[in-house]
Amino acid sequence: MEHNLQPTQFQEMDSGEKRLNELGYKQELRREMTLFKTLAISFSTMTLFTGITPLYGSSLQYAGPASLVWGWVVVSFFTCFVGVAMAEICSSFPTTGSLYFWAAHLAGPKWGPFSSWCCAWLETIGLIAGIGTQAYAGSQTLQSIILLSTGTNKDGGYFAPKWLFLCMYVSLTLIWAVLNTFALEVIAFIDIISIWWQVIGGLVIVIMLPLVAMTRKSAAYVFTSFEMGVDSTGVSSKPYAAILSFLVSQYSLYGYDAAAHLTEETKGADKNGPISILSSIGIIAVFGWAYILALTFSIKDFSYLYDPSNETAGAFVPAQILYDAFHGRYHNSAGAIVLLFVIWGSFFFGGLSITTSAARVVYALSRDKGIPYSSIWRQVHPKRKVPSNAVWLCAAICIVMGLPILKVNVVFTAITSICTIGWVGGYAVPIFARMVMPEKNFKPGPFYLGRARRPVCLVAFVWICYTCSVFLLPTYYPITWDTFNYAPVALGVGLSLVMVWWWVDARKWFKGPVRNIEISVNGKV
């Protein structure tokens, strides 16, 4: 008996690839990623340390531990609505362009170009500012490592002044740009290290810190204590202080759209994409709360954390908590330095990854002529095949954003505000379009909300608007040049220019994403 079967010829098309073709795009990327790998990369993007660590001290100072601890739970709850709304869209539109493509398709022919224009620019602003957040927090951690390694603030250790801090900020930005220009193969290897660094490092700190700490706060203190830091923050209103204490959670709980960016490379993306988004939120919500609890239970003396004369110069609260724990038990700071290095590694990996993403978004927008002097930024290096000009544009803007470090004390607040509003604001565009579009125009994927889509999208959209609003608020009083949050001014000027350009010129030629497969009237490619 002859067997003329040819398995490859009759192999069933992947469900994600089939949906991609229906949308008008051919499969060009290798679809080999499993659910686990997609989830791992998404978790790595929603980095555990890079969100919580730099804002932990300021959020704790506004209203004490209870507001910070329960704030994470509240923000996680509302973030789930955003994740569910995005998961439904991802299931229907498993494309690598994700937000940019979703906005264009969901808004329809009339509003699609404008929606994708807004979404692309918000994402670009958020990602470029994201590089700055990693560079600043990485420099802050390095500042504490140098201080503890050279003795402590009380024993003649070296505390890097503002000019050196700025040099560290610029150096990290330049290193990431160089690696993204000349060492793309190395970056792929580093991404794998980053995933395990986050997982193993996170477990070590969450488990080890409470065990090492000689003195621990009671559960009643951690979960019920509300302490105002009026003398330090100038914020005397309890509701306002509670709102500001939530900022650390709102800054940390995003980035789950990374799973959507990988859908054209993921097997069964119309199913596994939504699973990755929701699982990422669930994992980081649990891990993040555990990290916050580990830090808070290990506090030795609340007021001493912010004392300029303490061992870490009152500059970095998590560093002081680590120092108190390890010095209290082992009478040296070696353990604190090691764990600070683990945290610093997270900032380094995070900044490198965000630089890669930011350059790709700038390149894609330049390809559609959506950025001034697009012909320069869309150029790809002939030998290395990377958008090197886009990489260095992102680095240059990031460095300019950091220059106020020399004069302003709340630079990190401003950069995180710009990053969060841009990044999370980009989520709002496709979610709003999904909420208002006629249901007959939506082709659902395996993950479908049905009648629940409008209330879910409404809660998600309102929560995003609220999040963006609170990041524009002043964080210290009285307002002076040293405490001024310049994010509203920077965002207002930037977004106004983008909108003026749209109405004056761009609306005449910008059409959003362009299909690369022609679709016939009967829907066949």
List keywords for this structure.
20 helices, disordered N terminus, mainly alpha, Amino acid/polyamine transporter I
Describe this structure in words.
By secondary structure, this protein is mainly alpha-helical. The chain has a single domain (35-506), classed as Amino acid/polyamine transporter I, CATH 1.20.1740.10. The protein has helices spanning 15-22, 35-45, 48-63, 65-92, 99-149, 162-182, 184-212, 219-224, 230-233, 238-245, 247-252, 258-261, 269-297, 317-330, 334-367, 374-377, 388-402, 411-436, 453-470, 487-504. The longest helix is centred in the N-terminal third of the chain and has 51 residues, at 99-149. The two termini are 38 Å apart.
Q: Runs with pLDDT <50, length 5+?
A: 1-11, 27-32, 516-525
Largest sheet: none
CATH A-level architecture: Up-down Bundle
CATH topology: Amino acid/polyamine transporter I
Highest CATH level, the class? Mainly Alpha
Task: Kindly state the percentage of residues in helix.
Answer: 55-70%
**Distance between termini?**
38 Å
Radius of gyration: 24 Å
The total count of strands amounts to 0
Keywords: Membrane, Transmembrane, Transmembrane helix, Transport
Pfam family, one: AA_permease_2
Main location: membrane
GO molecular function: transmembrane transporter activity
Briefly say what this structure is:
It is built from 20 helices and no strands.
Topology:
Elements (H helix, E strand, L loop, with lengths): L14 H8 L12 H11 L2 H16 L1 H28 L6 H51 L12 H21 L1 H29 L6 H6 L5 H4 L4 H8 L1 H6 L5 H4 L7 H29 L19 H14 L3 H34 L6 H4 L10 H15 L8 H26 L16 H18 L16 H18 L21
Helix pairs in contact: 2-7, 2-13, 3-4, 3-10, 3-13, 3-15, 4-13, 4-18, 4-19, 5-6, 5-15, 5-17, 5-18, 5-20, 6-15, 6-17, 7-13, 7-15, 14-15, 15-17, 18-19, 18-20
